[in-house]
């Protein structure tokens, strides 16, 4: 984790009570809004790690709660875990998101003809280390894969392929050269990971091809602009949240507890 960030955990793991808050100088901040997107221009970004490699619990930045803690996703009252997809165990990369990005569900992407998934842009970090949940790490943008999640809804999940190592990978083609077969394994994992739950295979835009770094950076910039629009347009009277596609999204309130005299 970058040295000026830390985290605090509350509640038991694998429970609906679990929350991890990101801290800066001993104050809670939002990993969605308060961590800068760019670490070192033009292509080194900050990544918020939600799910360490080879783990199964589906953790995510919670847009619907104040300070946007990391929590385990719940569907129909049950905690969500990803199934193992043979021959892999859990997530095959460190999985997370880029702060200060948002895939606008009202925006129809001209390339894929699908809408955003109402989340920060997703990130697969393919280095050799296991990164801890809540880590904030600088990553190189290498390329991008666009998955159409549950195609009937035409919801696009943009999957950035990134690298947190000093090893000289610069482009998506370098991945195949130094890690042969890994991009194919990534594509097949995303194609099949919902099949054990009875859902159909996922589909991809661009015939399942990975797009290059330049294309990926264009998408990152677009989602950053969509985030700017999200946080600058009029919200409710408290300034804390806005209502998007039937869900509340809480805005940046790093000093929320301090201002209200609450203990933390």
UniProtKB/TrEMBL annotation:
- Can you list the GO cellular component terms from the UniProt entry? cytoplasm
Catalyzed reactions:
diphosphate + H2O = 2 phosphate + H(+)
Q: Kindly state which keywords UniProt assigns to this record, in alphabetical order.
A: Hydrolase, Magnesium, Metal-binding
Any GO BP annotation:
phosphate-containing compound metabolic process
Q: Mention one GO molecular function.
A: magnesium ion binding
Cofactor(s) listed in the protein's UniProt record: Mg(2+)
Q: Does the keyword Metal-binding apply?
A: yes
**Its Enzyme Commission number?**
3.6.1.1
Give the main EC class.
hydrolase
PROSITE patterns assigned: PPASE (PS00387)
Per its UniProt record, what Pfam families does this chain match? Pyrophosphatase (PF00719)
TM segment ranges: none
Top-level division of the source organism's lineage: Eukaryota
Known PANTHER family for this protein? INORGANIC PYROPHOSPHATASE
Family the entry assigns: Belongs to the PPase family.
Q: What is this protein called?
A: inorganic diphosphatase
């Amino acid at each position: 984790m970058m040295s000026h960030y830390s985290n605090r955990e509350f509640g038991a793991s694998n429970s609906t009570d679990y929350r991890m808050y990101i801290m800066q100088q001993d104050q809670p901040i939002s990993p969605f809004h308060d961590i800068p997107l760019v670490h070192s221009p033009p292509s080194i970004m900050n990544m918020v790690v939600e799910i360490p490699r080879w783990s199964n619990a589906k953790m995510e930045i919670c847009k619907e709660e104040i300070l946007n803690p990391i929590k385990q996703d719940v569907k129909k009252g049950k905690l969500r875990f990803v199934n193992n997809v043979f021959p892999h165990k859990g997530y095959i990369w460190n999985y997370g998101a880029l702060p200060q990005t948002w895939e606008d569900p009202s925006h129809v992407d001209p390339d894929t003809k699908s809408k955003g998934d109402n989340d920060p842009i997703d990130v697969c970090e393919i280095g050799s280390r296991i990164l801890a949940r809540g880590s904030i790490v600088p990553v190189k943008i290498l390329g991008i894969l666009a998955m159409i999640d549950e195609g009937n809804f035409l919801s696009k999940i943009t999957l950035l392929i990134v690298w947190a190592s000093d090893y000289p990978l610069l482009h998506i083609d370098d991945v195949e050269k130094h890690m042969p077969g890994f991009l194919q394994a990534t594509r097949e994992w995303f194609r099949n990971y919902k099949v054990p739950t009875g859902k159909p295979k996922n589909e991809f835009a661009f015939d399942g091809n990975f797009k290059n770094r330049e294309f990926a950076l264009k998408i990152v910039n677009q989602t950053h602009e969509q985030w700017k629009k999200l946080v600058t347009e009029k919200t409710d009277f408290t300034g804390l949240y806005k209502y998007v596609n039937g869900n509340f999204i809480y805005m940046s309130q790093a000093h929320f507890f301090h201002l209200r005299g609450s203990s933390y």
